[in-house]
Amino acid sequence: MHNLTPSAVQLVDFYDDGEHTRHFHFRLLEEPEITTHEHHAKWRHTQTGQFFMLSVPTFGEAPFSFTEVPDENGYFRALIRRMGAVTSELFELEAGQILGARGPFGAGWPMDEIANKRILAIGGGCGLAPLVSVVNQLIEHQNYTQLSLIYGARSRQTQMLNPERERWQHIIPVYNTIEEGGVNGGDNEYMGTPSDILPTVLDSFGELPEIVLLAGPEAMMYSLAEYLVAYGISDHTIYLSIERRMHCAVGTCGHCYMESKYACTDGPTFRWDQLPKN
Questions:
Q1: Exposure winner among 79, 96, 185, 219, fewest CB in 10 A?
Q2: Dihedrals φ, ψ of 86, to 5°?
Q3: 253 appears as a binding residue in the annotation
Q4: Where is FAD bound in this sequence (predicted)?
Q5: Is 126 annotated for ligand binding?
């Protein structure tokens, strides 16, 4: 039987990171390494690509990706866009407030499959969030043979995770695309969408990427996956992080049902050849 009791977490701090978007820093109040409760101990084993449910008392809860999974002291991060009642109230809170969190949930990125490969990561809008921890982990352990990132946003004002992308671009190729407002002439900023720059990035690999990681709007990911397969990349080496409204996170409410699968339990990470397409 699922335990739906949230763990107590503290809002440590936050900073604005894009239009109507903030990067939040949380801390589990129970020490993960000493707790005897199973649903607390699970936090210690969070995998990159999983998600959690954040609860704002009296306002409800909502799912969010980890941009930084819980460390040994229970600190973790998430990028959150102001979109509804829960996030609107969260944006009114001050550091030090106590909230609730359930998790971790779902299937993360297949790190064993990804390691020591030629990897292309593509994120759009808030969809870059599920890619942050995997990119950080790959860079930290240097367990890739080639790694490039494409990030698409509507405009410069809506670009997110700016500190992360600034740091990454000194280590790996980062291609930032924007659709409105023009570019600033920087070497890594391009007018258009990830689809527009994709052929150039693929050519830069020499050999085709062995792994592709996609995160962002479903229409964008599906279109890119179809293009990549037509380009010659195997459909079982393309992975997508699917965002759905996950009310329960344990596969009982049915809100994230996808044919025979649930985004919350079978995903949010899916391999393209195994993903229901309807």
A1: 185
A2: -65, -50
A3: yes
A4: 79-81
A5: no
Strand ranges (E), the chain: 7-16, 21-28, 51-56, 60-65, 75-81, 98-105, 118-124, 146-153, 174-178, 189-191, 211-215, 238-241, 257-258, 261-262, 269-271
CA atoms of 177 and 194, how far apart (whole Å): 6
SS3 category, 65:
strand
pLDDT tens readout for residues 83-138: 889 999 999 999 999 999 999 999 999 999 999 999 999 999 988 999 999 999 99
Contacts of 187 (CB under 8 A, 6+ apart): none
Any binding-site annotation on 256? Answer: yes
Return d(Cα 242, Cα 263) in angstroms, integer: 7
Q: Would the annotation count 208 as a binding residue?
A: no
The count of residues in the chain is 278
Candidates 71, 23, 9, 77; CA nearest to 45 is 71
| Domains of the chain and CATH, by start | 7-105 (2.40.30.10), 111-274 (3.40.50.80)
Q: Is 81 annotated as a binding residue?
A: yes
| Alpha helices, DSSP H, located in the chain | 38-41, 85-90, 111-114, 129-141, 162-168, 194-204, 218-231
Reading phi first (left if > 0) and then psi (alpha if -120 to 50, else beta), residue 229 is in alpha
pTM of the model: 0.91
Q: What whole-number distance in Å separates Cα of residue 77 and Cα of residue 127?
A: 15
